[in-house]
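Escalation from tier 1.

The customer reports that the assembly of two entities below gives different structure tokens on two consecutive runs. Tier 1 could not reproduce it. I'm attaching the input and our single run for tier 2 to review.
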Amino acid sequence: RKEVEQDPGPFNVPEGATVAFNCTYSNSASQSFFWYRQDCRKEPKLLMSVYSSGNEDGRFTAQLNRASQYISLLIRDSKLSDSATYLCVVVGWGNQFYFGTGTSLTVIP
Amino acid sequence: GAVVSQHPSWVICKSGTSVKIECRSLDFQATTMFWYRQFPKQSLMLMATSNEGSKATYEQGVEKDKFLINHASLTLSTLTVTSAHPEDSSFYICSAMDSRSYEQYFGPGTRLTVT
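Tier 1 run:
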């Protein structure tokens, strides 16, 4: 079983829609969680950290569910500029970073 | 956010030559840096973890004698692709970890083409 599993999509949504991605992880001892965004042919950029209490940054909300071992990213009021690949990252003991394969999002006008 | 630079951003080399890629954390110290490779339309693949002052830890299947990593200071790690071959052509990305937050900050990547 992979350390981190993520639905690759693609997700094609109209502008203004709300879209959510989930990412499951296998190691219950995982410590830290992040969502990154990667545009085509560019490096990943940190979108947001995921805290136990959940966190919100504008149209983006990230949540952690330790009991079910998944993290989620919710994007409200999608913009064309949100089109990208979204990567989840899970950090285990010893600073082991595990990346999901990424979820492709295309926002359609 | 923190800044990580990578140099060169793009390189073309002939088969059999070696290429060195530098990764620098510009505004924070990074005891741990990571090197990734990414093929078109595929996810990042971790190649190795670079720890300042010690040997790098390579992922399974990554040849340590081919991909030499040196992390001599808290702000610089280098990856040398030795005796490059066309199949080594890829997008190489480094990242530096902020040890306080565990957040990784990525360099802009180096596109290597071996002819």
